[in-house]
C-alpha cells in the first residue's frame, strides 16, 4: 500500500496521520485479515436484511459491508481524534471495536413508523450498546420525549443528521459479528445520501455548501411532517366515508323495511276489501234466496192454510189433535173438519199414502199419527215440510174448505 496515495484517496492530511501514531504495517495486517473475513460479513448482512424486511412498518432494507479502505480510514481518523476506544486497536480486536463493519439501513415512510420497527428489533436481538436517536437542532420536543420513553438516548447531530442506531450481535458461526442497524425515513435517507455525496471528501468545511445542505435538511424534515399529516388526513377521510357509507346502508335498510310494511299493509287492506265484498255478496245471495225460495210449511202453517185461521201454537195443535181423537168440538173458529183436513194433508205429505174416506175412519186409522203429535215424537211446530204454495177457496154451497196442494 502506498501511504501517500492512501492518504490522498481518503482525504487524510499528513497532520492527521501523524496524530494517529499508527504503524503502516499494522494497517496492512488489518487490511489482509479483513479481506479474508469479508465473505462472512456479506452472509451476515444478507441474513439481517431478510430478517428485517417482513416487519410491517418497514418500506425497504439496504445493506453494505464496509470496504477495506474505509475500515483503515476510520481507524486513522479515530486515532487522530484521540479516541480511547481505538488506542489499542490491533488485528485481533478490530472486529469488536469497529461495530459498523456490517451496516443495515431500514427505511420507513412515516416518522411514527419507528415505534413498530423499534419493537421488532428489540424483540429479535438484544442491543449491545445504548440505542441512540440522532436528531436535528430544532426538532419537535415531543419526538425526543417519545424516544426517551422507549429507553433511547437522544443526541443532537451537528450536521442535522436524523437516524436511530442499534448495535446488535449475530453468531452464524463461532465468530460473533457486530452489526449496526440504522432506522430512518425515506426523506431522511435521501438527504443523508446527498449530504454525504457532496460534503465528503471535498466540501466538508465549505460554509456555503453546508448552509444549503442545512436548508435541504429542513425541507426533508418538513416533508416528513407533511407525509404524516397527509396520512392522518387520509385516515380521517376514510373514517368519514366509512361512517357515511354505513349511514347510507342503514337508510336503505330502513327504506326497504318501510316499503315492505307498506306493501304488507296494502295487501291486508286488499284482503279486507275482498272479505267485505265477500260478505256483501253473501248477504245479497241470502236476500235473493229468501225472495226466491219455496215457502217452508210447519204444522201450524198447514193448519192455518186449511182452517183459514191464525197460526196456532203447539199447545193449540195438540188440543186440536186431542179433539180429533176424542171426537170433541174444535177449538175456537176451527171445526173438526178443518183439523182433519189439515191432518189429512200432513199425513199424505209425510207418509205419501192416501187417507181413507170418512172422519171416523180417519180418527181410527190414524190414531198413531195423532198420538205422535200428542206425545211429542212428531213435534208439531218443528216439522219442516217443503211444499208448493197452498191456495184456499170456499165452496158456498156446502161450506167446506177445498185445498189445492
UniProtKB/TrEMBL annotation:
<protein>
    <recommendedName>
        <fullName>RelA/SpoT domain-containing protein</fullName>
    </recommendedName>
</protein>
<dbReference type="GO" id="GO:0015969">
    <property type="term" value="P:guanosine tetraphosphate metabolic process"/>
</dbReference>
<keyword id="KW-0175">Coiled coil</keyword>
<feature type="coiled-coil region">
    <location>
        <begin position="230"/>
        <end position="292"/>
    </location>
</feature>
<dbReference type="Pfam" id="PF04607">
    <property type="entry name" value="RelA_SpoT"/>
</dbReference>
<feature type="domain" description="RelA/SpoT">
    <location>
        <begin position="63"/>
        <end position="206"/>
    </location>
</feature>
<dbReference type="InterPro" id="IPR007685">
    <property type="entry name" value="RelA_SpoT"/>
</dbReference>
<dbReference type="InterPro" id="IPR043519">
    <property type="entry name" value="NT_sf"/>
</dbReference>
